[in-house]
Amino acid sequence: MQAVGNSETKAARDRPWIFRTYAGHSTAIESNRLYRANLAKGQTGLSIAFDLPTQTGYDSDHPLARGEVGKVGVAISHIGDMRALFEAIPLASMNTSMTINATAPWLMALYIAVADEQGAPRAQLAGTTQNDIIKEYLSRGSYVFAPGPSLRLTRDLILFCAHEAPKWNPMNVCSYHLQEAGATPVQELSYALATAIAVLDGVRAAGEVSADEFANVVASLSFFVNAGMRFVTELAKMRAFTELWDEITRDRYGVADPAKRRFRYGVQVNSLGLTEQQPENNAYRILIEMLSVVLSKNARARAVQLPAWNEALGLPRPFDQQWSLRLQQIMAFETDLLEYGDIFDGAVVIEERVAALKREAMAELAAIDAMGGAIAAIESGELKRRLVESNTRRLEAIERGELKVVGVNCFTTSEPSPLTAGEGAIHVSSPEAETEQIAQLEAWRATRDAARVERALAALRVAAKSGANIMPASIEAAKAGATTGEWGAALRAEFGEYRAPTGVANRARQQSGDLDPLRGEVERVSIKLGHRLKLLVGKPGLDGHSNGAEQIATRALDAGLDVVYDGIRLTPQDIVARARAGVDCIGLSILSGSHLAMTREVLALMKAAGLARVPVVVGGIIPPTDAEALRAEGVVAVYTPKDFAVNAIIADIVAHVERAFEETERA
User: Fold this and answer.
1) What is residue 315's predicted lDDT score, i.e. its pLDDT?
2) CB within 8 Å of 623: residues ≥ 6 apart
3) Which among 120, 267, 447, 584 could disulfide-bond with 115, CB atoms 3.0 to 4.6 Å apart, if both were Cys?
């Protein structure tokens, strides 16, 4: 009798995507220890997070870097730091993604310099520099220079890699941060594609590559996308991306080889939707979001990195990152997903949704083209304004309960979570990391060949001024021992600095309904004050994530307040100088983890300026112990991601202003 068994024939399996974890903190030595531990757990690629001074071209001891060193990523000040970051990690065989934009040529120069020391051929280097400066003006805010010189640096890195490092992806067109800033799927599609078109048009116009080489440049561009909770739409979006990119590269750029028209992308699933309330639910959100980028074979991600479940609370611990890594590994190795073709081919609902997204995205692309292209639309502020409006509509839908978020505006009754109990529930960066990094930087400067550094920086300035490709001079500066701040200063001297439009309208939207009671309170308190209530929204430090500040400024305007909001990257001195002109409340938005240092400096300067009675509120990802410390030092209110009701925040601010006025009157 024939034994009954599993009759399935074992199918050939596709290779899984690259497993990454976005990581880096404190110093290079600490981050190297983390990377090696993650690789030992089965991670197959590295994704490097840099701190804000590194991202914006400052040394760790620059005044603007105070409180920011090692907070949102690792501090890299010179080639010694880069050596330590990749100690015992062979770059010839590693696939490394570097989330770096304004200073991408410099970090790539440091990477190449270390690879040269390791004996790794440049032609073998594999990985990605994000190098997408356009989305920085729209969402993430780590730009330095104006669009013109910034795109020249982007182009320089692309052309250098085309000749020297052909396996490297010199640009990762990044729609991830667009969705984090509130972009709709159509905006994410169209703005990302408009960015790629602007860059490729610039490379082609430079005339430095042949037609065949240009096809290779097209093939070298990759994308970095986001995936949110609307699973069907997100999956359709990725299939639309794949089809649109194939059509654009074929029809606009004449790329004949289908392999070179392939849409290659990495992904980090949505962090915007992770909640502080009932944070354990985020584990399920991360899984659902990942499905939309791995289930469809024809639109499957090449690399996936997942956030940790507790990122709305603070920095994740190694265990939290491991949990997200294991999710990828279980999907890739325990299921039969990789044994089959595309399981959505022929699905009518998916095909209809893809077609609709493509039509709408092409219409939006045409509208951007009518504005003069992506760069003109950035400089005019139009794209930023549209993103702010989209995010406003998203938040209003959550506030009204139209967009359900479990644990936030529905099903809020909950048992206490044991996962967040006690000390050590989140990672806390070492308070000594900044001091150690600065001491090491000072020692580095004291022991290097100063004359060689000066010659290298002089050559860098000549390259910047002449229009020569910036990469050879940057690599020599890296090898000579120049610092991140010196590279940044040399280019700032030639290109200057830039402040992008904020996207916040200068007048209130004419809406009523749920704003009427709030407008009534604003009017009542303004009459009491004898002037229109004025709120100063300030973003101190180098943190460029401005979504929260923009939404507070927008809603305050809608509610009838006068609002002062001048965008990102203000010093505490800038904020207090604006407050001297007369404001009733200062709201600080700080998401980089530097809230204690920045707020303390603002409070001290306000006291010195005689403004101690002006109430100060602070918003950000702030752990409860830090919130208590801020309140103890004079902050009247602290808002975190759990405070999703913007109207309630504005009402609270109005109440604090009234209370401060009454206390002043009694004094």
Assistant:
1) 82
2) 313, 314, 426, 428
3) 120
Annotated catalytic residue, options 156, 539, 565, 626 = 539
**For 163-200, what is the HEC assignment?**
HHCCCEECCEEECHHHHHCCCCHHHHHHHHHHHHHHHH
Residue 634 sits in which domain range?
513-666
pLDDT at res. 512: 45
Tell me, yes or no, whether 374 lies in a domain: yes
23 φ, ψ to 5°?
A: -150, 155
Same domain assignment for residues 221 and 366: yes
Residue 409: inside a domain: yes
* Closest by CA position to 504, among listed 588, 419, 447, 562: 562
Residues 297, 186 within the same domain: yes
Q: What is the pLDDT of residues 159-174, one digit of tens each?
A: 999 999 999 999 999 9
Q: What is the pLDDT of residues 138-159, one digit of tens each?
A: 998 999 999 999 999 999 999 9
Place of tokens 């085309």: 162
Q: Alpha-carbon distance 29 to 440, whole Å?
A: 12
- Smallest CA-to-CA distance from 463 within 88, 147, 156, 133 is with 156
User: 267: part of which helix (H) or strand (E)?
Assistant: strand 265-268
Respond yes or no: is residue 642 known to be catalytic. no
The 637-639 sheet, strands edge to edge:
562-565, 534-538, 585-589, 616-619, 637-639
Q: Domain tally for the chain?
A: 2
d(CA 226, CA 139): 13
- What does pTM read for this prediction? 0.93
Choice among 81, 132, 543, 558 that is catalytic: 543
Residue 18: which residues within 8 A CB-CB, separation 6 or more? 44, 45, 95, 266, 302, 303, 304
> Are 182 and 34 found together in one domain?
yes
Specify the DSSP element, H or E, that contains 534.
strand 534-538
From the list 35, 58, 176, 265, the catalytic residue is 176
Q: Which residues of the chain have pLDDT under 50?
A: 1-5, 7, 512
d(CA 242, CA 264): 8
Q: What pLDDT sits at residue 537?
A: 98
> In this structure, is residue 407 part of a structural domain?
yes
Instruction: List pLDDT tens digits, range 229-281.
Output: 999 999 999 999 999 999 999 999 999 999 999 999 999 998 888 999 999 99
Kindly report the CATH number assigned to the domain that includes residue 650. 3.40.50.280
Q: Under a CB-based contact definition with an 8 Å cutoff, are residues 646 and 392 in contact?
A: no
pLDDT at 5: 45
Residue ending a domain, among 368, 384, 415, is: 415
**Is there a catalytic annotation at residue 22?**
yes
Catalytic residue among 25, 71, 78, 177: 177
Where among 415, 430, 451 does a domain terminate? Answer: 415
Select which of 71, 135, 427, 545 is catalytic: 545
| 137 among known catalytic residues | no
pLDDT per residue over 505-530, tens digit each?
877 665 645 899 999 999 999 999 99
Residue with tokens 């004898």: 530
Alpha helices of 401-537 — where are they, by DSSP H?
433-447, 450-466, 470-480, 484-495, 516-529
Q: Is residue 454 part of a domain?
A: no
- List pLDDT tens digits, range 223-235: 999 999 999 999 9
Q: Around Cβ 13, how many Cβ atoms within 10 Å?
A: 13
Structural tokens at position 499: 């402040």
Total residues belonging to the chain: 667
**Catalytic status, residue 176:** yes
Residues 6+ apart with CB under 8 A from 92: 115, 118, 119, 120, 121, 124, 125
- Please give the pLDDT value at position 426: 77
